[in-house]
Amino acid sequence: MPFHAATANMAALLRSARLLKFSPSGLLQVAGTNRTGPPLSRLHSGALGVSRTGGCPRIISPVSENASSSRVWPYAVGGVRGYAVATEKKDEASVVQTKQTQQFDWALNKLDTSVRRTGRITKTLLLRIFHDICRTGYPSGNQALLLLRSCGNLLPEMPLEERTVLAHRVWEKLQELGAQYDVSHYNALLKVYLQNEFKFSPTDFLVKMEAAKVQPNRVTYQRLIAAYCQNGDIEGASTILGFMKSKDLPITEAVFNSLVTGHARAGDMESSKNILTVMRGAGIEPGPDTYVSLLNAYAEKGDLDSLKKTMEAAESADCTLMDRDVMQVIFTLAKAGHQQHVPEMVERLKQERGYVPDAINLCLSLITQGQEDTAFHILKNFPSLQPDSVTSDSPNLGNFFLRHCVNMDTAVEKIGHYCKELQELNLHATPLVFSVQCALEAKKTGTSVELMKILKEQGFPIRPHYFWPLLCPHLKDKNTAGVLEVVKGMQELGVSPNVETWTNYMIPAFSSLEEARQAFDDAGIALQSEALLSLEVRSLAANNLAQFYALLSDPSFPPLEHSSFRASLIMGFRKSKDVESMVKIIELLYRDERFVNQSSTLVDGVSFFLYNLIDSMREQEVQAQEDKLRKFFNQLQTQNITISLNIYRGIRNLLESYHIPELSKDVIALVDPKDRASNALTGPRVSGIEVKVRELEKKLPELKAENKPLGSVLKKVIQALCVDENLERALELKQQYEDEVTVGTYAILINQCCVHDNVEEALNLKTELSRKSSSAVLNASKYIALVKTLSKHGRVEEAVDILKEMKEKGVVLNDTHLTLLFHMLNSIVAKGGAPVIRQLQDTIFTLGLAKPSSNLCSPLITAYLESKDLPGALEAMLECQNRYSQMPRIHDILVGLVEKGDTELLQKAMDFLSQERGEMNMLYDLYFAFLQTGRYREARKIIETPGLRARPGRLQWYAEKCISANQMETLEQMVDMTAKLFECDRDEMYSYILRLCKETNNWVKAEALWTKMQEENIIPRERTLRMLADILKNNGQEVPFEVPETWYEEAAATAQQVESSTPPATANSVAEFQTRLLALCKKGKAKEAYGMLKKADKTGVTLPPAPYDFLIRALLSEGAIEDAMGVKDIAVSHMPSFQLSDTATSLLIISHSRKGQPKAALEELKSMLQADRMPLQLAIIRLVQALGSHGDMAGIQQVESLMKGFSTTINLSSMLFVNNKALAHINNGDVESAVELLESVYTSPDSVNPSMSFVFRKILEDNNDKALDKLSAMAERLANHFACYRPASDLFVQLVDMDKVEDAKFMLARCNAVAEQKEVLMSYLTRTAQSPGQVGKIKALLSLIPDFAEKEVLYAYLMKCHTLDKDLPSAKALYEQMQKEGIVVDELSLKRLAGLYRTAGEPVPFTEPPESFKFYADKLKEAKSD
Questions:
Q1: Which of 58, 505, 1017, 1140 could form a disulfide with 1144 if both were Cys (CB 3.0 to 4.6 A apart)?
Q2: How far, in Å, CA of 618 to CA of 914, rounded?
Q3: Lowest-confidence pick of 288-297, 744-753, 984-993
Q4: What is the DSSP string of 40-82?
Q5: How many whole angstroms from its chain centre is CA 1151?
């Protein structure tokens, strides 16, 4: 039958359903059989449910829609009978869209992970994925299915009505964006309707499908039957049954299950029960789902006797009911109001595997339906000691329960009762505190206050900051009424807002201080004077340093800790040039005790302030303000202001990381001279050993007398002297021990001479270094510092020679060095002038040290502009363009020419620009110059040039310039002038002004702009409307339009689909192929799966992204990189935007690392981080280890730099980079550097004695005796001289672990303190006892250090080892020995020994402890913690 005719006939049939009568026996004929069922007296007189009643229906699997069905409880994937869960496979063929803007593998993985782990997803996660899909503007069919199917029972925390509303929203929005819906989408929507018990018209639904030219399939009809039955409408179900028969569609178990529910809902329990007989007559044996349908029918009636009988009948029919089946019955009982029968059903729960997530979802659904008491009864029957967090030391069972009760606005009295009972039952340590936390997170003011009252009654102190989460949303929305409501709640609890609460969370919600004062007065709330003062202080500190000083210096000003305005003062200084006022402020803070914390001193306060100032500034900002900071530090010194030595070190480290070590000499002048004299200041990059210079100097003659190398010690002494600004003494030592001076020492001295502008000495040292070692190479930053110093003193030829040497010796410059070059060239603008800069610039570019760029060319132009030589600047710019194709500072040159009124030169510049960049670009350059100088009339003439088109990039550049310089008038003029500019995006232009309005909080201007946009008939983008709405809302103004809720662009809806040229495979065949592919991967046959994929690909089979990624991961796990990349190529051929998942990319990094290809692995890591994706911890570890084994120090440093800021996120060990850098040095033959590096770690004052076992293990495995000798000597030296025993302990443990017992004994004799390192030894014992076959090592350790642990502990670990080795004789002997020695055997050891006896088939000769292993293990942990 043609498509339209078939659908129209079905719709017509339903419209006339009341006039039709069908023979039940005929309707129930099963396709493929000749059997019919007995007549049913009321087949067409009821309603049909889903496959189940209530809110927890069993989901019918659409794979075949036969007896195999899937379950809802617990909405988790994978049942014992292999049911699909909560999401369904496609029923019919679907076209795979191969061209999409972006693939959402992460979304699929995220949802899949959530469902597998918890059996549910959260509304937040689903909405996030929905919005991201909308942003791409081209949702695929699969993504639409993913979202639709997630709007049902996977959201147990959402009410049914909200779930349906969300489903409709998803449907409509994705359809607007161009999603193509097929029958699978309509079926998914039907399923959501059934799960959410949404009442709809099946007739209208079919009409909509007909209008969309989508043909219903068997699944559609089955679900329509379920919809009729859910409402007890058997007549409607009969109509569809008749139509299915006429189309020869099979009647499956799912249909019968619906009829069971339908008859029950129609009040005919007898017919409902008889459906089972009809099924058997039709050749279908009732399965577990059918029995659960019947059980739910009885549960709705509250018929406990029939429930029991039906359960017994199911068991006798070999239909085992699982816990999730019983949970469905419990849910139905509770929802139908028969809670009295729930305890009996709860007793039938067997607490099978997976019980907890199932039970959690049942509780959540019950709470959502208002059945909190029933949910609490379920909660109390959870398995014992089952906390929500596996890392929690105290019981916290019920966090999910309490959170959802709060979210669903359960009565506070009930929540209080639940909390009390949970605590009394020892199921939760602090339930009430947790409930308050949940209420605060949910921004529920009333609930929070009431719960806090209960908390206060129990003696718990209520602090002001508890209310901050409640105040934040009111502050953001400028909701003054909400703020007052929260404050009243605080008053009810007797809590007074502190200054921080007033100033940060309450007063800023009002448009002015006066309004705030009036509002609080009207509400009878006293406004603290301290809060008003704090606001005034912060405002002045951030905007006017002179007025701020005047305020603070007033003797009547009250005491105020400077920490309260420190951030504002730092912000004010960073954007101000008023150094003098800042110095006065610092002096006041330094000398006036009104501004110091009682727990600190005046010096400490100022010291920390200066450190925070430098720390808050970005590298580029510090470099740009170097002169200002130098002036600031020098003026502080003239005021005799001092800082502590430790703070100086911190500031010095920051300046070094910013590549401005020269400022350190200005900072060190602030350190008390006594501290400088008594301490050696050691740079962290050279050595962490902080020892006195005198003590180090004493060692030098001793080492020389003993004919021992003293280069390392000399380097430390000279470094300390240089940091202490004692260059003269450093040079004396260099002269005295000239033969022992290393390249590194020369580099330190040369750099220090550059810092001190001692150009002659710097050159002499460089000459000596070259004479001593012609191959010696300084690092790039020291070369650049030398060039800078030489150039500043007019020694340009020598500077050029240094640049030539850099080229000869292959010095490579990175981005940081290029920035230093720029600042170096800029620094000699005033002293060297244009000729010097030109010579250096030409040399740099000619030698190829750096590629010409606008940035590096600009200092030459700056030199001419600073000297007011505009002709010279123009000629230099022309030369740069001709030679390097760069036009540095062209805008500034043109601005200068316009201001000067030099029309001749201006015309010359315009002619050149027109020739080089085209007439249109020339006109824009001239236009921006006129705008910048305020010549708006001339600018308008330029922009109105006939034929001129909008250049969005140029307009954006100048707009950004205006925004950063806060030039509102100029920006407004530009927007106004471009009103008639051809192809000018007016919305974009107005958005620039709005951005500046937002930064300056100018709502008046923004509101006027809205009117102007309407006058210009501009249709604003949603982004622009939201920005305007934010400005108005933040200032308490009414928003005159509806604020858009979504942020994807409508234009994206016009995106066109590109269909695959190959005929699509059917969904069933693709699903079957996918299942076989994944099965092979799981069996470790990834290569066989790859072969199967290649064959299938030739036939046009296309899979979703996930199977490709799964196969790639399986191949990479086997090290088959080439095959994995082959799979990726296949995937990309079908989906051009296909990308490896984070896990797959991490495995690729690991595979490259294992195969000795660290460079390739490093490139993968870079690409991953650039895409804002996070690698696995193991990937970073393996990569760094591979780089270390290849001696690639630069690579390790690169990885360390890339992972800076992420190490905490992915839990990287602090020693990962240190250990592997040391190994890189060792593998490069530079053991001394490895020793120096490790020594610096262990002798640092902040050292926490980390482990270097990895280094010792590697050199022992490699039999590197040279490295072992040096490192063992280091370990002994650290132990004997610095009382640092960790390296020696690590070496000792590694020797024991590698069966080098004699070496370990020798080590112990030389460093007997190792025997006292109980923590390290116990850690080794614990770790070793985890694996079988380790008894020998533990006994070897015992033979060397017999008393390192208590015998009870030691014997317990030995018993564990014997258990792992299944060595009953040894375990028996140990047990007898413990008895002889009178040692009490702990219960865990007895449990283990009893297990060995049972395994061997022998009787247990003692009473076996009755509890589980986990129980006794937890008991031991608690005993240890106590």
A1: 1140
A2: 38
A3: 744-753
A4: -TTTTSS-B-SSSSTT-PPPPPTTT-SS-----TT--S--TT-
A5: 25
CA distance 1254 to 1261: 11
Q: By C-alpha distance, which of 130, 67, 58, 128 is closest to 88?
A: 58
Residues 1161/124, Cβ–Cβ less than 8 Å: no
pLDDT in tens, 927-983: 999 999 999 989 988 888 877 888 888 999 999 989 888 899 999 999 989 987 877
β-bridge mates for residue 982, sequence order: 949
Q: What are phi and psi of 760, to 5 degrees?
A: -65, -45
Residue 558: asked if its preceding bond is cis (omega within 30°), the reply is: no
Of 386, 115, 160, nearest to 378 (Cα)?
386
| CA neighbor of 329 nearest in space, from 370, 298, 364 | 298
Tell me how far apart the alpha carbons of residues 311 and 292 are, in angstroms, rounded to a whole number.
9
Residue 139 tokens, joined: 């949702």
The model scores a pTM over 0.70: no
Contacts 24+ apart (CB under 8 A), 627-635: 628/577, 628/579, 629/663, 629/666, 630/663, 630/666, 631/579, 632/579, 632/582, 632/583, 633/663, 633/666, 633/667, 633/669, 633/670, 634/666, 634/669, 635/579, 635/580, 635/583
Q: Answer whether 1124's CB lies under 8 Å from 1115's CB.
A: yes
* 162 residue type, one letter: E
Answer whether 1145's CB lies under 8 Å from 1164's CB: yes
Q: Are 1050 and 1056 in contact (CB under 8 A)?
A: no
SS3 state of residue 1142 = helix
Place of tokens 């413990």: 1378
Token couple for 135:
């942003």
Task: Report the distance separating Cα 1113 and Cα 1105, nearest Å.
Answer: 13
Read off the DSSP letter of residue 381.
T
- Which pLDDT score is estimated for 20? 32
pLDDT for 1241: 82
Burial of 1180: CB neighbours in 10 Å, binned 0-12, 13-18, 19+: buried
Q: Average of pLDDT values for 1011-1037?
A: 78
Q: CB of 1027 within 8 A of CB of 998?
A: yes
- Cα(467)–Cα(455) distance, integer angstroms: 14
Per-residue model confidence (pLDDT) at position 193: 94
**Residue type for position 1189:** S
Average pLDDT over residues 630-652: 85
Could you give the 3-state DSSP secondary structure of residue 982?
Answer: strand
pLDDT, one tens digit per residue, over 279-289 is 988 888 898 88
Tell me the average pLDDT across 395-399.
82
What average pLDDT score do residues 348-365 get?
87
The helices-and-strands tally (H runs, E runs) of the chain is: 76, 0
Asked if 825 and 856 count as a contact pair (C-beta separation under 8 A), the reply is: yes
What the block records as the tokens of 54 is 């209530």
What is the C-alpha to C-alpha distance for residues 907 and 1410, in angstroms, rounded to an integer?
Answer: 100
State how far the Cα of 633 lies from the Cα of 650, in Å rounded to an integer: 15
User: Residue 681 has what pLDDT?
Assistant: 44
Q: Quick check: 655 and 626 in contact, CB under 8 A?
A: no
Task: State how far Cα 649 lies from the chain centre.
Answer: 32
